[in-house]
Structures are given as C-alpha cells and as structure tokens.
Write a structure and sequence with these properties.
alpha/beta; TIM Barrel; two-stranded parallel ribbon; 9 strands; globular
C-alpha cells in the first residue's frame, strides 16, 4: 500500500534508533485540554494518587475524554516491566503494588458518576499472577460501590498463564480487552517480550471460559505493516471469536520510539471499518485518533 503522499512506506522493523518525528497531518491535530470537568478529573486523579493511561501513555484524546468526565484507570502502578518501542509508559522494575489501589479506583469511578468504567494496567511480569488478583479486586470493589456499573478491563497477556486469566474472567467484567497492537512480523522490534500467537490465544481462551463475555482487541496502524498482514490479523482475531475491534493511527511519543512509517487518512480508516465489519466483528471503532478505550461506552448495546 502507498502512503497518502504517494511513496512506499519504510519498514519500521529496520528502524530502532532515534529518529526525527514526522509532522502530523491536520486531521491528527487536537486542542489542548481545558475546562472545568477536565480540571476536576485531573485534581481527583492527583488527590487519590491514581494513574491513568490517558496521562502515562500520552493519549491524544485526553482533552476530549477528560472533558466528558471519562478516563481509563491504570492499576498496578505506573512502571511497566516491558519496553515496547511504541509506548510512552515508564519501564523498569516496579515497586511493590499498593493494596489500597483497588478501593481508591472504585471510589474515583463512583465520584465521577461513571456508568461505564475502563481499567487497564502496566505489565507486571515480576508478579506470579501478573496482577490478575488486583484486577479482580478492582472489579469486585467497583461493583460493590456502584450498582449497574459496566466494566471493561484491558489486560496484559499474563505470559500465557491460563490460571491468571481465569481469575480475571471469574470476576465477570462486561468486556475483556487485550491488544495485539501490530502484525506478527513487527513484534520483535515493536513488542519485545510479547508473542503474537500468545495474545491471540489469550483472547480465544477468555471467550471459551465465559461465552457471555465480550472480547476486544486493538491494532495500531502506521508501524510498517502492509495490507495483507493487516487482513490476516483481522482473520486471526475473528477466528478467536473477538467481538470488538479498534483501529487507530500510531503516533511516535518521543524520538526514542519507533518512527511513523505511514499516516493513514480518515478515508483509509473508514474503509478499514467496513472491512472489519465484513469479517464479522460486532463493532468496529476506526479512526486516526482512536485508541483501545476511545468511546468504549458505545459498545453497551452489545452487552446483555
């Protein structure tokens, strides 16, 4: 596939050093976050010593989402044990996790008067269960505080540990998400420490553990994938009975991260949404600024 400028996109897999960030097209420019709702949520997150993927991963939608009173809470601290070359979250050896964190997250969700909550985490390969118990506790305490709350969890791969996955599934989230992020060929450079087949198998296992569970995954575009590779990932996800797919543009967080190989246009994303629906996904969110949790509440109509 050719880029919107007409040139063939470079292979991101060959580019691992520092690079100059390409200027963003107009459709990727966003307003600076402002407004009282944004300020209130920022204050609450700071006051309760919480983390959000919105801040830590430098999400471009923070102004829109926080301005609307929604956020994706990130549990198990803010230090990840993996060093994915597309992600702005800090990496290293995390400190012991905070046992009171699930209660504080549940209280923040209540105080924000949310009806749909998204909870994710850093990778915690230093923990025997990968943090599955903390996910479970956060779900349990949130349900105890808020009647009728819908909960989506975006989980790590738990290194393929089926028992850890079961701990989360048994807590009965409404949506269980795990992102494959990119095509298999780019895993060695983009997702060191992760395995494509392991991620797809986790999604397959989650559905087999609870047939009523809605599963979800996300793909970043613009890392150097080609169209055939992208379609193959869609096929793999549907064969694993994934219900919901999100597609968004990769944006290089810093010069130390992988460069953008291609900027997809809004028309490209619209076409890919139709392709995803033709594969049989129940819902596809596709756009330049789409991230895994973007407009997550829109899937409520799919839930029992």
């Amino acid at each position: 596939m050719k880029s919107s400028a007409g040139e063939e996109p470079p292979d991101a897999g060959a580019q691992t050093g520092k690079s100059t960030r390409r200027p963003r097209p107009d459709w990727l420019k966003v307003r600076l976050p402002t407004g009282p709702t944004y300020a209130n949520l920022k204050r609450l997150v700071h006051q309760e010593n919480l983390h959000t993927v919105c801040q830590d991963a430098r999400c471009p939608n923070i102004g829109e989402c926080w301005g609307a009173g929604t956020a994706t809470f990130m549990i198990l601290g803010d230090v990840c044990t993996r060093a994915c070359k597309f992600c702005a979250v800090k990496t290293g050896l995390p400190p012991d996790y905070d046992l009171d964190e699930p209660r504080r997250v549940a209280a923040a969700i209540r105080d924000l008067n949310l009806r749909y909550a998204v909870i994710t985490s850093v990778d915690r390969d230093d923990l025997k269960d990968g943090g599955a118990f903390v996910f479970s506790e956060t779900i349990r305490l949130t349900r105890e505080l808020i009647a009728g709350i819908r909960i989506e969890v975006l989980i790590p791969d738990f290194r393929g540990d089926r028992q850890a996955l079961q701990i989360v599934v048994r807590a009965r989230p409404d949506v269980l998400a795990h992102n494959v992020e990119t095509v298999p060929r780019l895993y060695p450079v983009a997702r060191a420490g992760s395995r494509y087949r392991r991620s797809v198998e986790l999604l397959r296992q989650a559905k087999s553990m609870d047939r009523s569970l809605r599963t979800k995954s996300s793909i970043m575009l613009g890392l150097g994938e080609n169209n055939d590779e992208l379609l193959e990932v869609m096929r793999d996800l549907r064969e694993a009975e994934v219900d919901i797919l999100t597609l968004g543009q990769y944006l290089q967080p810093t010069q130390d991260h992988l460069p953008v190989a291609r900027f997809y246009t809004p028309a490209d994303f619209a076409a890919l949404r139709e392709t995803g629906l033709s594969f049989g996904f129940s819902y596809v969110e596709s756009g330049p600024l789409v991230r895994s949790s973007y407009h997550a509440e829109r899937v409520e109509t799919l839930l029992p």
